[in-house]
UniProtKB/TrEMBL annotation:
This is Glycine--tRNA ligase. It comes from Emticicia aquatica. Homodimer. Belongs to the class-II aminoacyl-tRNA synthetase family. Substrate binds at residues 98, 186, 233-237, 346-350.
């Protein structure tokens, strides 16, 4: 049976991965909390990304910049003036929608009905109108396409308005002294304003990169599809500073490298694809999304953008601080490349979207056909997570509690603890205990039985195949010590 988003949401909640925020007060739209298993999976994904960026590249270092930044940052970046989504309200249902999403939905309908050309024309027209900021034109297009409100089914639309996605608040305790400040809508700007700090103190030579993982906030108009679109989320961004004439080459190389990363954390090639942007954001020279096939279709999980010198130049203009780099490397005429503002190739992935992709992909429902006549087939649900990403790597389970088996199992669990997250469970029938671990994706269950007491061997039960193998306790660590190989 095909997995629905509802299956994913229910499983995530029931097994301690993701809870709605402040649920006892009926939740807060588009805000979620990670539970005891979710936080482990998310941390493991973040660690894999951090390693892929910083540990495996001599020329990439990390930073951790503050969420609050000087308000002029967002002027320079273009977010104050341009970080808008066009919104439209339906007068009957009083529901708010993103005008561009309504039109994209219609285009998707055309495409599904095989009317590819009609779909493309609609997207092109939408791109043209939005590019020209012709909001009335966008509204007319919605009406001409007969797009009705999904709730009221009417065409009774308001005008289209631009809605800035940044959250703002006040700094300073006294009203008169306070000033407007934003919650960062992306982590990238914390990297740009630290470009020279890192370059100088780290004696970095172009090409080099700065990586960061951190929270970002966007007042998304339409928040749907679980953790795919949240108002508070986490980004993993890396800005790679290059010589301008090499930007295209680096863009291609990061495009490749990032796809490989997603495969390395276990996403299958068939569920990943590139989507090149025709309509470019204000800062971009070239842009591509890596899309994953969620239960609701192919959607962006990561963006790779060639940003030229847009950001550093804007910060230089507004701060009046030079953002130049002196390149001592020699050009083809034997002269140093000299001073320039580096160009930037950015890779930007949402930790929560990657989490959701990995979680959706891991969720597996299988029917186990009974071999015995008259016995019913069983359904088995488990999370097929990469062993290095699973919240718990190994569960140690004594067959029974008596005759010293429990103590032996505890001792094994303790000996593994400092290497991997290990759990000990002696509650209930062993089959039930295996199932509990399957549901949270534990790749290895280590069973301690009477033979263990005689020869110091245990069985490892493998999650996906359910096969068991007998191994020496002394070899356990080596047997299960998988890492994400990149
Ligand atoms: P979308 O078009 O889906 O709104 P975007 O193109 O605005 O995304 P970017 O600004 O390129 O996204 O942000 C980079 C990454 O940050 C995205 O690929 C996504 O993984 C993540 N991201 C952006 N907005 C959200 C959000 N509201 N909730 C969760 N993750 C997000």
């Amino acid at each position: 049976p095909a997995t629905s988003l509802q299956d994913i949401i229910s499983h995530a909640k029931e097994y301690g991965f993701v809870f709605p925020s402040s649920e006892i007060y009926d939740g807060l739209q588009a805000v979620y909390d990670y539970g005891q298993n979710g936080v482990e999976l998310k941390n493991n994904l973040k660690a894999a990304w951090w390693k892929a960026m910083t540990q495996l590249h001599d020329n990439i270092v990390g930073i951790d910049a503050a969420i609050f930044m000087h308000p002029l940052t967002w002027k320079a970046s273009g977010h104050v003036d341009g970080f808008n989504d066009p919104m439209i309200d339906n007068k009957d249902s009083k529901k708010r929608y993103r005008a561009d999403q309504l039109l994209e939905g219609k285009a998707e309908e055309y495409a599904k009905a095989g009317e590819e050309e009609k779909a493309q024309n609609l997207l092109n027209e939408m791109g043209r109108l939005l590019g020209a900021e012709d909001l009335e034109g966008v509204r007319n297009l919605i009406i001409a396409e007969n797009i009705v409100c999904p709730i009221s089914k009417t065409l009774n639309w308001t005008e289209v308005r631009q809605f800035n996605l940044m959250f703002s608040t006040q700094v300073g305790s006294v009203a008169e002294d306070s000033s407007l400040i934003y919650l960062r809508p992306e982590t990238a700007q914390g990297i740009f304003v630290n470009f020279l700090n890192v370059q100088k103190t780290g004696r970095m030579k172009v090409p080099f990169g700065i990586a960061q993982i951190g929270k970002a906030f966007r007042n998304e108009i339409v928040a749907r599809q679980f953790t795919f679109r949240m108002r508070e989320f986490e980004q993993m961004e890396m800005q790679f500073f290059v010589r301008p004439d090499t930007s295209e080459e680096w863009y291609k190389s990061w495009k490749d490298a990032r796809l490989k990363f997603h495969k390395a954390v276990g996403l299958p090639a068939a569920k990943l694809k590139y989507h090149d942007h025709e309509k470019l954001a204000h800062y971009a020279k070239a842009a591509v999304d890596i899309e994953f096939e969620f239960p609701f279709g192919f959607r962006e999980i990561e963006g790779i953008h060639a940003r030229s010198d847009f950001d550093l130049k804007a910060h230089q203009d507004l701060s009046k601080k030079k953002q130049q780099y002196f390149d001592a490397d020699l050009d083809e005429n034997g002269k140093p490349f000299g001073n320039y503002i580096p160009w930037v190739v950015e890779t930007s992935v949402g930790a929560d979207r990657l989490f959701l992709a990995v979680f959706c992909n891991a969720f597996t429902k299988e029917t186990i056909v009974s071999s015995e006549e008259g016995k019913e087939d069983k359904e088995r649900v488990y999370l097929k997570l990469h062993p290095a990403l699973a919240p718990i790597k190994a569960a140690v389970l004594p067959l029974v509690k008596k005759d010293g088996l429990a103590e032996k199992a505890q001792a094994i669990a303790n000996s593994l603890k400092s290497s991997f997250r290990t759990t000990y469970d002696d509650g209930g029938a062993i089959g039930k205990r295996y199932t509990r671990q399957d549901l949270i994706g534990t790749p290895y269950c280590i069973a301690v039985d009477y033979q263990t007491m005689e020869d110091d061997t245990v069985t490892i039960r493998h999650r996906d195949s359910m096969e068991q193998e007998r191994v020496k306790i002394s070899e356990l660590k080596e047997k299960i010590g998988y890492e994400v190989s990149m």
